[in-house]
C-alpha cells in the first residue's frame, strides 16, 4: 500500500483546499470521503481577502474570475437595516480596500477545486481512507470520524433554517450587498452576476423552522411575493431562478480540535450562524493556519512527526480566539435581534446607527471580516 503523509477526510471545499495546500508543501496526501450530493447547488459564499489569497495560491481563483459570467462578484458596498429605522453602511472606498468581499458560486468553487486536484501529482483521490501520519477531519458539522473519536461538541440549535436560492432582479445590483436584521428573521441579498439578467443575487434567508417550512411549501410566485415584501423593493423586483434549498442552523464547537495523529478543521471543529457570511472563511483560515504550522515544522523541526500533538496544538491555539470570537459575535447579534420588546428594539437600532457614525470601529469590523 502506498504511504501517505496526510489523510484528509471530507471532499467539501475545506477538504479539497487542504489537500491542495498540503501538496504544495511536497506532502503525499490522500483525499477521501463521500462525493457531493447530486443536483444543483444554489448556495453562494461570501469570501474575504484571506480566503481569496489562499485560492490564488492554489491557482483556483483565476479560473473562477475567468468564467462567463464571472463566478466571483465584488461587494463594493454593504447596507444593513434594523427593524426600527437603524442603519449601518460599509463602503469599500471608505474602508480603503478594493472590495469588502467576493460573492462566489459554491458549485463553481467546488468544480474548480476538483479540477485542480486532478492535476496535483501529490494527491490521490480514494474511496477508502488509508492510514497516514496525520488524519485531518474536514467532514462537516456531522462528522462521523469526530464522533468515533469520542469528541464532545458544545452545540446550540437555533430552531431556524436558512433558505438559499438564486434570484434575478430587474435592476443592476451595483455591487451592493443588502441585509435586514429583524425579529425573528435575518434576510441577506448577496450581489451575484447571472447570465442574461440585469442583476442577480444569492439569497440567504434565516427564519424560524415553522416559518421556513411555510415559505418552502409555497409555489414560486407566492414565495417571490413574500420575498419582495420582505425586501421592500430596495433591490428591485426579485424573481427566482432555479430551486430553493434549506438547512438547519446551529452554533457548535468541538471541545477538542486535535490529538495524537488527528486534527479537526472547518465545520467539524466549529459552526456559526450564516448572518455574517463567515463559515467558509473560518474553514479556509483553518487550512491556511495548519499549513503554515506544518511549513514551520519543515523548516525548523523536521524531526517532529506530522501527528505530533505539540505541533497540532499550535494550530489549535492560533485558531481558538478568532473562531470563538466569530461565534460569539454572530450569536450575540442573533439573540439581540430576537427580542421583540419595544425598549430592546429601540436600543439595538440606535446602536446600529451609532456604529455607523464610528469610522474607527467600522474599519476594525471590516478588517476582522476580511482576515477571517
From TrEMBL:
The regions listed as transmembrane in this protein's record are none
Q: What class of enzyme is it?
A: oxidoreductase
Q: Give the enzyme's EC designation.
A: 1.14.13.-
- Does the keyword section mention Oxidoreductase? yes
**Which Pfam families does this entry report, sorted A to Z?**
FAD_binding_3
Pinpoint the FAD-binding domain residues.
Answer: 134-326
- Quick one: signal sequence residues? none
GO MF entry, a single one? FAD binding
Keywords annotated in UniProt: Oxidoreductase
**UniProt superkingdom:** Bacteria
PANTHER family recorded? UBIQUINONE BIOSYNTHESIS MONOOXYGENASE COQ6, MITOCHONDRIAL
Protein name as annotated: 2-octaprenyl-3-methyl-6-methoxy-1,4-benzoquinol hydroxylase
Species lineage, top-down?
A: Bacteria, Pseudomonadati, Pseudomonadota, Betaproteobacteria, Burkholderiales
Amino acid at each position: 500500500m502506498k504511504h501517505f503523509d496526510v489523510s484528509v477526510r471530507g471532499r467539501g471545499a475545506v477538504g479539497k483546499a487542504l489537500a491542495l495546500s498540503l501538496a504544495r508543501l511536497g506532502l503525499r496526501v490522500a483525499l477521501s470521503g463521500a462525493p457531493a450530493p447530486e443536483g444543483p447547488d444554489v448556495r453562494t459564499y461570501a469570501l474575504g481577502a484571506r480566503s481569496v489569497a489562499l485560492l490564488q495560491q492554489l491557482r483556483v481563483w483565476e479560473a473562477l474570475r475567468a468564467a462567463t459570467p464571472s463566478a466571483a462578484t465584488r461587494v463594493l458596498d454593504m447596507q444593513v437595516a434594523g427593524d426600527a429605522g437603524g442603519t449601518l453602511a460599509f463602503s469599500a472606498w471608505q474602508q480603503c480596500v478594493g472590495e469588502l468581499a467576493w460573492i462566489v458560486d459554491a458549485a463553481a468553487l467546488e468544480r474548480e477545486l476538483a479540477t485542480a486536484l486532478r492535476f496535483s501529482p501529490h494527491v490521490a483521490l480514494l474511496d477508502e481512507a488509508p492510514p497516514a501520519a496525520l488524519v485531518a477531519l474536514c467532514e462537516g458539522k456531522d462528522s462521523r470520524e469526530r464522533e468515533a473519536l469520542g469528541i464532545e461538541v458544545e452545540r446550540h440549535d437555533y430552531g431556524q433554517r436558512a433558505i438559499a436560492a438564486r434570484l434575478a432582479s430587474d435592476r443592476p445590483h451595483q455591487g451592493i450587498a443588502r441585509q435586514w436584521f429583524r425579529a425573528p428573521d435575518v434576510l441577506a441579498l448577496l450581489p451575484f452576476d447571472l447570465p442574461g439578467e440585469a442583476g442577480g443575487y444569492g439569497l440567504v434567508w434565516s427564519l424560524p423552522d415553522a416559518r421556513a417550512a411555510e415559505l418552502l411549501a409555497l409555489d414560486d410566485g407566492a414565495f417571490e411575493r413574500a420575498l419582495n415584501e420582505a425586501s421592500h423593493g430596495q433591490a428591485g423586483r426579485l424573481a427566482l431562478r432555479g430551486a430553493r434549498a434549506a438547512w438547519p442552523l446551529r452554533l457548535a464547537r468541538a471541545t477538542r480540535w486535535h490529538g495524537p495523529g488527528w486534527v479537526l478543521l472547518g465545520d467539524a471543529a466549529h459552526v456559526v450562524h450564516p448572518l455574517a457570511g463567515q463559515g467558509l472563511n473560518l474553514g479556509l483560515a483553518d487550512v491556511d493556519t495548519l499549513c503554515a504550522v506544518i511549513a514551520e515544522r519543515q523548516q525548523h523541526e523536521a524531526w517532529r512527526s506530522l501527528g505530533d500533538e505539540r505541533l497540532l496544538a499550535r494550530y489549535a491555539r492560533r485558531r481558538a480566539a478568532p473562531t470563538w470570537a466569530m461565534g460569539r459575535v454572530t450569536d450575540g447579534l442573533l439573540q439581540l435581534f430576537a427580542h421583540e420588546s419595544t425598549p430592546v428594539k429601540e436600543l439595538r437600532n440606535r446602536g446600529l446607527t451609532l456604529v455607523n457614525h464610528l469610522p474607527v470601529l467600522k474599519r476594525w469590523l471590516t478588517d476582522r471580516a476580511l482576515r477571517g
